[in-house]
Give the backbone structure.
Amino acid sequence: MALMPILTYPDSRLREKAEPVDPTREDLETLVTDMAETMYHAVGVGLAATQVGVTKRVVVIDCDPGGEESRLIPLINPEILSGEGDSFEEEGCLSVPGYAAKVKRFTRVRARWQDLQGVAHEVETDGLFAIAIQHEIDHLDGKLFVDYLSPLKRELFRKRYKKMHAQETE
Ligand SMILES: [Zn+2]
């Protein structure tokens, strides 16, 4: 097990599109274990391989890290099949530390993915899990939640983020 460094905005590698993987032909256990350890260490509810510089369609999610409902779900090649309803919840991201904003997402989604053995799963879900799946799949497509901000909010975000992280390195 090993902690992996998490790439942070504006690292250009966060803009890369991840490639589909075949879990029956490729051993993804180590990657998933390391990603899970990295996510728990950073106290996040989800992490995409893109965020640790690996361009594979692999995601880990745990909607209640350290809690009673804690359950690690590795999602290989996750996809949203359909979505409905508008949700507008505050999101944060381990790759955009110190910033949170409300983002419009589907409330309820039908999603499909494979597990580490290559078995396909298809579920309909809502709540935090539905939001997390949408957020993490965006990472695999090179998108960040701040991309959804209005031009004005995005400009404010850029200024604030730059200032905040400039202070850190002083
Ligand atoms: Zn994120």
Summary: Residues 12-169 form a domain with the Peptide Deformylase fold (CATH 3.90.45.10).
